[in-house]
Amino acid sequence: xxxxxxxxxxxxxxxxxxxxxxxxxxxxxxxxxxxxxxxxxxxxxxxxxxxxxxxxxxxxxxxxxxxxxxxxxxxxxxxxxxxxxxxxxxxxxxxxxxxxxxxxxxxxxxxxxxxxxxxxxxxxxxxxxxxxxxxxxxxxxxxxxxxxxxxxxx
Length: 154
Known about the structure:
- The structure is a single chain.
- By secondary structure, the protein is of the alpha+beta class.
- It has a single domain, classed as TBP-like (2-Layer Sandwich), CATH 3.30.2030.
- The chain has helices at 3-34, 72-85; strands at 39-50, 56-65, 89-96, 99-106, 109-115, 123-129, 133-134, 148-149.
- Strands 1, 2, 3, 4, 5, 6, 7 and 8 form an eight-stranded antiparallel sheet that branches.
- The chain is elongated, with a radius of gyration of 17 Å.
- The model has no long low-confidence stretch (mean pLDDT 88).
């Protein structure tokens, strides 16, 4: 396979993965909204999951829920219940001091739910895929990291 054909295949596979992660992220935003939680930030981006000599890329997304640090325990409980009702399953969960956290799974996706340790200390979530798409060039994302604002119109 020539390099251009390999790049095309990588672009196509990344686009498919991006579509899957974005669709699941939008579904999570809807589940959280149904639980009375407002997601104020949500976005996605491609990133490397393997380096040279066999580079690979994957797609991840994440978001934050509006509120205050004091509201996080109740928000966490509501979000966890909504995600479970939406078909996600708990893989691991616990607490880091007073901060509850959970790692959930669905299909080939992982979802982390926890309170941020720094900054505004809001409840946040991150979705990642176990899939790592092979690409021919370690500079594959130099011109386009496939960044998406998931709350923008469109």
